[in-house]
Amino acid sequence: MTAGRPTASVYVDGFNLYRRALQGRQNVKWLDLHRLFSELMPEHDVVRIHYCTALLRHGLTADVRAPVRQQVYLRALRTDPRISVHLGKFRNDRRDMPVHPQQVDLETRKFVTASVRKIEEKGSDVNLASRMVAGALLGHSDIHVAVTNDSDLVGPLRMLKEELGFSTGIIFPMTRARSSKELVQTDPDFMTNITEEALRASQFPDTMRDANGVVRRPEKWSWKSEGPSSLGPSNR
Q1: What is the distance between the alpha carbons of residues 199 and 178, in angstroms, rounded to a whole number?
Q2: pLDDT tens-digit series, residues 196-220
Q3: C-alpha dihedral over 224, 84, 126, 69, to 10 degrees?
Q4: Which of 42, 169, 222, 224 has the greatest number of beta carbons closer than 10 A?
């Protein structure tokens, strides 16, 4: 343990954070992650943040400017040396899947299918779990906190706490009532939920600088922007 406040490393499932807390809410997407987690964990010193996401490509979303806004946001995150970005990828496949409601073809005795395009983010949950385990074994902080509602992380969290003896935490990107019961049952040492007040209080300045010049909040993410965005698979 540290002499002062206990230190915390935070591991963010960017896709889960987006879908649960940010989607369709343009004016809170310019999110300062360190400020947010410091707000939610006032008794801890947040020393590292690992942000796990995947890069959008043109054709994955109807909004052609979405990949540009994502790149701008990643530039903003990288202005903070405590934040590192870890990239997975999107898989974009044509698949035949059963229609809804289900129908049975009387001749073949098989479900009727339709051809669809299926977009899946691959790698972020693995990146998050491996970074969390590595950070714990390397002694990067006193507690290791996942930002997710994905029950796929139950196994890594249980292993860290029950088998390896490390302190764990979970920050749910939604209200307590909708939090994953499976994750709650891992008995983390710290647990909280992202609130509306914390999101609004944790925005980057509209204009920032990095080694390449000025970084500006995307106009679509301004405080004056209202209304839902088109659905998409990343922080846009």
Answers
A1: 18
A2: 999 999 999 999 999 999 999 999 9
A3: 30
A4: 169
